[in-house]
From TrEMBL:
<protein>
    <recommendedName>
        <fullName>Calcineurin-like phosphoesterase domain-containing protein</fullName>
    </recommendedName>
</protein>
<dbReference type="Pfam" id="PF12850">
    <property type="entry name" value="Metallophos_2"/>
</dbReference>
<feature type="domain" description="Calcineurin-like phosphoesterase">
    <location>
        <begin position="3"/>
        <end position="189"/>
    </location>
</feature>
<dbReference type="InterPro" id="IPR029052">
    <property type="entry name" value="Metallo-depent_PP-like"/>
</dbReference>
<dbReference type="InterPro" id="IPR024654">
    <property type="entry name" value="Calcineurin-like_PHP_lpxH"/>
</dbReference>
<dbReference type="InterPro" id="IPR050126">
    <property type="entry name" value="Ap4A_hydrolase"/>
</dbReference>
<comment type="similarity">
    <text>Belongs to the metallophosphoesterase superfamily. YfcE family.</text>
</comment>
<dbReference type="InterPro" id="IPR011152">
    <property type="entry name" value="Pesterase_MJ0912"/>
</dbReference>
Length: 244
């Protein structure tokens, strides 16, 4: 069986990303997929892009990644974009919407937020039909078929649940977790590309990292919205007082 590490929502937090990649390496996993939001919120979007580009087989587009090539009146987005430079912005602009493949007889679709948008936020406590819609597809998806298993990022809140024989899970956040103050990622284990039913495992991993180092890097960078970012790293509580 093959193992694939799924990471998401790095948000320019290099100490967290480094800790997660070291954990993945210790486990002997060589295939890494990123589910978006490499940039924004944290101080080192430029370094995060370089590290993801060099370590991940593929990354999908997140809402913050999309914002980098948009003309938006949003201070943190403008500040992060100024760090990136032409080549990194071009790389972000090429990111696909989804990753889709067979594993152990199940059709798996991975994306950042929903099968319809980079920006649509779906929480585990949303109504049943809204969560069930995550298995559908849109013109943005590669294959026009329902998924058996869906994994996503965006909400920074790791979970797994089963809906009508299908599996929905969120990988949590590497750099800005909003459930536990440790970096989060997921390991998929199964027969990659396999069309027949076989063992398939979904494992959640929590990785401690140097939070105070990440905070000091934000302070040294004199980035916008430093205080709410620091509170989120230390408490895993969303700055808007709503989990998300």
């Amino acid at each position: 069986m093959e193992q694939i590490a799924l990471i998401s929502d790095i948000h320019g937090n290099i100490p967290a990303l480094t800790a997660v990649l070291e954990d993945i390496k210790r486990r002997g996993i060589s295939r890494i997929f990123c589910l978006g939001d490499i940039v924004g919120k944290g101080p080192n979007s430029d370094l995060a892009v370089d590290i993801i580009k060099n370590n991940c087989e593929i990354s999908v587009m997140g809402n913050w990644d999309d914002l980098m090539n948009q003309d938006v009146d949003f201070e943190m987005a403008r500040w992060s974009r100024n760090l990136l430079g032409k080549d990194r912005l071009a790389y972000l602009g090429t990111l696909p919407f989804s990753i889709e493949f067979m594993m152990s007889g199940k059709f798996i679709r991975l994306f950042h937020a929903s099968p319809r948008s980079y920006y649509e936020r779906i929480q585990p406590w949303d109504d049943y039909d809204k969560r069930l819609s995550m298995f559908g597809c849109s013109d943005l998806c590669q294959e026009k078929r329902q998924a058996d298993i869906v994994g996503y990022g965006d909400i920074h809140n790791a979970f797994i649940e089963h809906l009508e024989g299908k599996t929905l899970f969120n990988v949590g956040s590497v750099g800005n977790p909003l459930d536990v103050t440790q970096a989060s990622y997921v390991i998929l284990e199964g027969e990659y590309g396999g069309l027949t039913t076989a063992s398939l495992n979904i494992q959640f991993v929590r990785v401690p990292y140097e939070i105070e180092l990440a905070i000091q890097q934000a302070i040294d960078a004199v980035m916008p919205a430093t205080e709410p970012y620091i509170r989120e790293l230390r408490t895993a509580q969303y700055r808007g007082n709503v989990r998300g």
